[in-house]
Amino acid sequence: MREYLLTMLLSAAICYLVTPYVETYALRFGAIARVRSRDIHTETTPRWGGVAMWFAASFTFAVVSHLPLVGKSFGREAQGIFLAGTFVMLLGALDDRFDLDAVTKSAGQALAGGILLLHGVQILWLPINGILTLPPAIGQVVTVVFVMLVINAVNFVDGLDGLATGIVAISAAAFFGFSYLLAVENGFSRAGAPSLITAIIIGTCLGFLPYNFHPARIFMGDSGSMFLGLVLAASAITLMGQI
């Protein structure tokens, strides 16, 4: 548990330190949210908060990989989650700057789900009438659809200052506690990808929140909502695989 707390604190500190620099570059390159009649913000606000979150998560990944316990979490699944998260973050960053159409974003989200599949992150069963084992082809489709649903759920929630960031932080904290206790009670390895990923998510959200409280200095944008949504979905899938 001590190493997971260190992971949270590290990711929070890095996100807090990096966000002002990302804010500056977002303004410089035009990744901004202009004021519309239905918005609550009254000034043009930079986006690209997800870039700061991704940087914090990536740096934390690199550092904690050398820890005795948490380092054991790194494997094919964790690598796949990182690659897919990087892909959707870049897709979201482009959308924050150029306002991509819905078809392009949906195709990109589906491709990110495909990256997860290539690294073994797949829904194998569903809790229907006990346990319903899914054929591989159906499981792949269900995985991609689930990932897209969670990504867009986080995206839709991101409408008020601090709302999506707070909800994701609370969700990740609950999921971290569940996955860690489940590992302890059932003899699973405590060094699992779900616990590691959610610990990093908690930290990045806490580090980003001071800049995202009302009135927000920076929005997470699609780069953040897509990134957070994907890693949350992937963490749930990997835990189901362990069970």
Protein architecture, described:
The chain has helices at residues 2-29, 49-64, 76-98, 102-118, 136-157, 163-186, 193-212, 221-242, and strands at 32-33, 45-46, 125-126, 132-133. The protein is mainly α and 243 residues long. It has a two-stranded antiparallel ribbon. Helix 1 packs across helix 7 (193-212) and helix 3 (76-98) packs antiparallel against helix 4 (102-118). The chain is globular. The chain starts with a helix and ends with a helix. The mean pLDDT is 89.
Calculate the terminal CA-CA distance, rounded to whole Å. Answer: 21 Å
Runs in which pLDDT lies below 50 for 5 or more consecutive residues are none
As a whole number of angstroms, the C-alpha radius of gyration is: 17 Å
Helix content percent band? over 70%
Main sheet overview: 2 strands, antiparallel
Q: What is the overall pLDDT average?
A: 89
Please identify the oligomeric state: single chain
Order of helices and strands: HEEHHHEEHHHH
Q: Give the percentage of residues in beta strands.
A: under 5%
Structural class comes to: mainly alpha
Based on Cα principal axes, name the global outline: globular
The largest sheet has its strands arranged as: 1-2
